[in-house]
Amino acid sequence: MKALLFFVIIPLAAAFLCALAGRRIKYFSDVIVNLSSLILLLLALNVGPLAAAHQVSVYKLAGWMPPFGISLVLDGLSSFMLVVVNLVAFLVMVYAIRYMQEYTDKWKFHALFMLMLAGMNGVVISGDLFNLYIFLEVASIAGYALVAFGVEAEDLEASFKYAIMGSLASIFILMGIGLLYSYTSTLNMADISSVLSEKQPGMLITLVSVLFLTGFGLKTALVPFHSWLPDAHSSAPAPVSATLSGVFIKTVGVYALSRVFFNILGAPPKVLFILMVLGVVSMVVGAVLAIVQDDIKRMFAYSSISQVGYIIFALGIGTPLAILGGLFHLFNHACFKSLLFLNAGAIEYSCGTRSLNKLGGVGAKMPVTGAAGFLGAMSISGIPPFAGFWSKLIIIVASLQAGYFGFALIAVLVSIITLAYYLKFQTFAFLGRLDVAFREIKEVPLSMKFSMVVLAGICVAAGLLLLPEFRNFLKMASDVLLSGAAYKDAVFGAIR
Hints:
The protein has about 500 residues and is an all-alpha fold. It is about 75% helix and about 0% strand.
């Protein structure tokens, strides 16, 4: 179980080494961050069998027993999230080898990215709310700096807005943690759940739920808490946009929200219904705003709001099939949205623009980028047999089984709108007549193509996760949320 420490220690050490020697030794930071992210990915893949064998494993720092000491917890959900986060992080780092050469002080980017990765991994494995908050802040502050990395006026404005909204979210979350601590006299998540199970839920718990819903809703960019996301994701460098949209909002938003409401507060029915409504509203608003965008990255940013809406809607339904579909869509969205942002970065890298009205026909000059973009677009649009089709189908079927026929119809219509604006993206960017200005462009370098091809392959093959041989990867994660407040028994059982 000491391996859990390395999910935080390795990226923190990599960030320190980048800051120490990255400026002086050329390519040093490239080697360090890529090696570190590869090790973390392999480590994440190796702890999966541990979670499967033991269900819950707890590492006690310095031997102090929870709830008095700090504990790190590995279960099916945290194992699932570690794989998602570190898979995307590794591919983004490979992509950034060439993409970030256009920016000065590349080592600063690497140091900040590793800090953000340490924060995300820390959020996933934290066993107590205060350390979850600390890691959430580490990841968020690094994210604010990375959004402003281009130091243009637009980048700084987007970063400032993101920092203000993110800080407001952090205040709500910290207030919720403080009130919960005053009520239960503990910060350990399993212990909080145990105390709450012995008390009658009162107005204080309702207030705590509102604070957490607002705070994590802001982090997740659910409508109406979404205003910061389009500016932040479109202004950041493509590797940062891919990480923010692919895994960051899933980790500090969706994961933290689901962990708190399902495993600590016991999935209150009123909260689940609110999540359902917010998910549906986010689906619709994100899709409608995406279809009118000219900037590719802003289109993808609004699309993220819409697709995260599917995940939250599924979690709000709360049935076993819905939660399985929601987590499957989380994995799929991490892959195809990271791919699409990297795709947008490749277009900007070669063509110097992200405006759809200025592009056209570049697929002839950039066949790998065009093919990868097509596969990502079809998967996110829910076209069979791509992975996005299966996760959306599961969510819609779960909605019908639960009796939410109107919501299921909306989910289908939003998927049609999604197909419309991704066909717009494909048509305006890759098809049609090649503009004279782009006759000399070339395909992007190998490292950038590698990341896009791997992610495109996952978009095609991820449907295999539904086969019995691979389904355990998703089922372990969904079982943790379905267990609800029984999470506490599993954690205390692992300690004993």
